[in-house]
From TrEMBL:
InterPro entries reported in the protein's UniProt record: AmpC-like, Beta-lactam-related, Beta-lactam/transpept-like
GO MF term set: hydrolase activity
Pfam families listed in its UniProt record: Beta-lactamase
Residue intervals of the Beta-lactamase-related domain: 1-291
Entry keyword set: Hydrolase
Keyword Hydrolase: yes
Name this protein carries in UniProt: Serine hydrolase domain-containing protein
Hydrolase found in the keyword field: yes
Organism for this UniProt entry: Pedobacter jamesrossensis
Superkingdom classification of source: Bacteria
Enzyme Commission code: 3.-.-.-
């Protein structure tokens, strides 16, 4: 989908939503978002900050007292991938829990005693564990489950009626099925329990709902201007050098024009969304095979839109 000034100007689907049933994809299909979930987690934290219930400068030990070196790791470090905490997706023991029903505390306990990769604020390294911790903090502070918080404060508020916390059990209307590609052809995606990626990658949505999300951010429907700017600012490491990540978005450029972008990858699905603020252009691509990343085509279309749309 390509949208400008809040309205879709092009949208199209290619291929199959379900290979076994031979059902074509449509632009209304529901896809797993993977790490685009992090946008929602970051905004949920900022909603709580705006409500006065937490502060991003606070140490995580305030909420999780027994977290190792938690007095040196702030919520800001988690949001910006600068905490140095071990990313649980890189742990060899991940397969032992991948299909288990995990509580957020169990997930945190799974990685919290791993050796750190670096000291907080020393470098930027993309990290799913930090966003699992954020989901846990959201639950502790709000006294709602992460799923309830996102539904009550974001999805329901914005009319994102085809967006969900992912499930393989519940009947999801217009669900796109996810696939891997092997040498012998396509196979159904590997099953994981969504309590494992949790707030780092467990949401589902449609392109139309994601446009509602993008428009709501622009119109400050969820956050005031000051909190919104925190999500889209660049920050500095301890040594004063810049890095290109805000809170839940990569802060980049296309041919010198600033962009806010984020992709996602989870078994069977890959996603990419690019927003160009000064032209109010939003380009989003979803794939229901993790063999096909939509990043290049979404970026190429964003470049085209930038040239063609005034």
């Amino acid at each position: 989908m390509v949208a400008q000034h809040g309205k879709a100007i092009y949208q199209k689907a290619f291929g199959k939503a379900n290979l076994e049933l031979g059902v074509d994809l449509t632009t209304k299909n529901v896809f797993q978002l993977g790490s685009m979930t992090k946008q929602f987690t970051a905004v949920a934290v900022l909603i709580l900050e705006e409500q006065g219930k937490l502060n991003v400068t606070e140490a995580i030990s305030k909420y999780i007292p027994d977290y190792p070196s938690g007095d040196k790791i702030t919520i800001h470090h988690l949001l910006t991938h600068t905490s140095g905490i071990k990313d649980f997706t890189k742990m060899k023991s991940l397969s032992s829990i991948a299909q288990k029903d995990m509580t957020p505390k169990m997930m945190v306990d799974f990685f919290k005693n791993e050796p750190v990769d670096f000291l907080p604020g020393e470098k930027f390294e993309y990290n799913n564990s930090g966003y699992v911790l954020l989901g846990y903090i959201i639950e502790l502070v709000s006294e709602e489950t992460y799923e309830q918080f996102i539904k009550n404060h974001i999805f329901d508020k914005l009319g994102m009626s085809n967006s969900y916390y992912a499930t393989d059990r519940q009947i999801i209307n217009k669900r796109a099925y996810g696939y891997h590609k092997k040498e012998t052809g396509f196979v159904n995606k590997t099953v994981i329990n969504f309590s494992v990626p949790f707030s780092s990658g467990s949401l589902m949505s449609t392109i139309a709902d994601m446009l509602k999300w993008q428009n709501a951010l622009n119109q400050n429907l969820l956050l005031n201007v000051k909190e919104t700017q925190k999500a889209f600012s660049k920050y500095k490491l301890n040594n004063g050098s810049d890095f290109t990540y805000g809170y839940g978005w990569h802060i980049k450029q296309i041919n010198g024009t600033p962009t806010r972008e984020h992709g996602g990858s989870i078994f069977g699905f890959k996603t990419m969304g690019i927003y160009i603020p000064n032209k109010d252009i939003y380009v989003i691509g979803f794939s229901n095979c993790d063999c096909n990343s939509p990043t290049k085509i979404t970026t190429d279309i964003a470049k085209l839109a930038l040239e063609k749309l005034k």
